[in-house]
Amino acid sequence: MTVLWTAAEAAAATGGAVSGDWAATGVSIDTRTLAQGDLFVALTAARDGHDFVAQALDKGAAAAMVSRIPDGVDAARCLLVRDVLDALVALGRAGRARTGARVIGVTGSVGKTTVKEMLRTALSAQGRTHAAEASYNNHWGVPLTLARMPADTEYAVIEIGMNAPGEIAPLARMARPHVAMVTIVAGAHLEAFGTLDGIAHEKASIYEGLEPGGIAIANADVDTAPILCAKAKTLGARLIRVGEAEGADLRLLDARIMDEATVIRAQDGGVERLLKLAAPGRHLALNALMALAGAEAAGADGAETAMALGQWRPVAGRGTRERLVLSQTDDIAIDLIDDAFNANPASLAAGLEVLAGAVPVRGGRRIAILGDMLELGPEAAAMHAAIADLPSLAAVDVVHCSGPLMRHLHAVLPGAKRGLHADTADDLAQRLPRELRPGDIVLVKGSKGSRVSRVVDALRKLGQAAADDRRGPP
């Protein structure tokens, strides 16, 4: 494998000290996913990473970045630094500085991970591409992503998130993107920001990290678009607006939603463009146009990007669709839409729109299983109740809810649509299987903290158990 960091390079980047000669082929913060040859970074968060240094070295780590040498550990296999998180940031900055990659920074209340994965798919077909794993978008995720970037990377996609004011700009300056985009501004983290304008100002601060001559991409459809556009213009960035709004530079003209695909028609200046995604969802159409605009702004070929986007698939927990057989006699099979990773009013509306457009078979129904949307502030109860007024809910047959906030929706649902309510996702998961019928299409959606993904896990386990029963004893 290609060497990512030598001992001397890592020491120079971090200002640390080394007494041995080693070479790392990766960077890891978790012994559970550590690969042989990684530099293990002993971060201190919920647990002290120094307690796992010996285990990491036993598993084949090349070395460990530490602020103290743990008992029984060979100092020659350590990079000794003053503060481990600060050193990881420094390593990330050095990783960014040594590459000639075209870098795209992505933030937004909804869709940033999806757009990042779309860009990974599209750009990988045109050059060596590096992108963040999962949702590594915070104060340790961004430097970790940069520290893992090979020097010969041609395209890099860095996802940048936030939970509180003032977090995005420092991460953007670390990433130094040539292209920076805000996918959407919506009511996520209202508890910390108070208003959508506050969220928009924070999201727009990603443009502060742009390299000279950089390009800012903004959602043209949101009410806070003027805040995004004004920030880009103040910084002297070239602005590209994407959306359905008249005057958008890349304008969505039509999104035809089919059971398992989305056909997109857009206008780019005076040129009409077509592309097709192998997943349903009007929100995915805008995400795809964001990815197209970002790739082209980074210098990639637009036609090749559009073709490659047809190969993109949603990642687990973000709209993946799968068939589960829940009985050994094959008489109960459902289609599961797993969108359980995150939720706010905008993304929940998008998920329900996908469910409303899905076509059940054999008399099946459209079933929504909804967990609490978190961090919405004092209006959280009203925002949950307002879900009942979404037009797409008219096509949903039954809504099951879990959590104290979703009780507000459950209380205002029409009687025919009102399914189960449970205090926790685990309680709902136990009661739910008997409520399902053959042919049902089931959407599971909620904030990660609501743990509604436990329902997905329970349904998958039932499907696996049924499959084992069908196979018989070994």
Automatic annotation (TrEMBL):
The UniProt entry's GO biological process terms, in alphabetical order, are: cell division; cell wall organization; peptidoglycan biosynthetic process; regulation of cell shape
Tell me the pathway: Cell wall biogenesis; peptidoglycan biosynthesis
Q: Does the keyword Protease apply?
A: no
Stretches assigned to the Mur ligase C-terminal domain: 334-447
Q: Does the keyword Magnesium apply?
A: no
* Residues noted as binding ATP in the record, renumbered to the chain: 108-114
Quote the catalytic activity from the record: D-alanyl-D-alanine + UDP-N-acetyl-alpha-D-muramoyl-L-alanyl-gamma-D-glutamyl-meso-2,6-diaminopimelate + ATP = UDP-N-acetyl-alpha-D-muramoyl-L-alanyl-gamma-D-glutamyl-meso-2,6-diaminopimeloyl-D-alanyl-D-alanine + ADP + phosphate + H(+)
Key words, A-Z: ATP-binding, Cell cycle, Cell division, Cell shape, Cell wall biogenesis/degradation, Cytoplasm, Ligase, Nucleotide-binding, Peptidoglycan synthesis
Q: Which Enzyme Commission numbers does its entry carry?
A: 6.3.2.10
- Annotated GO MF terms: ATP binding; UDP-N-acetylmuramoyl-tripeptide-D-alanyl-D-alanine ligase activity; UDP-N-acetylmuramoylalanyl-D-glutamyl-2,6-diaminopimelate-D-alanyl-D-alanine ligase activity
For this record, an example GO cellular component is: cytoplasm
Segments forming a coiled coil: none
* Main location as per UniProt: cytoplasm
Q: Which residues form the Mur ligase central domain?
A: 106-293
The family annotation for this protein states: Belongs to the MurCDEF family. MurF subfamily.
Protein name per Swiss-Prot or TrEMBL: UDP-N-acetylmuramoyl-tripeptide--D-alanyl-D-alanine ligase
Q: Which organism is it from?
A: Roseicyclus elongatus DSM 19469
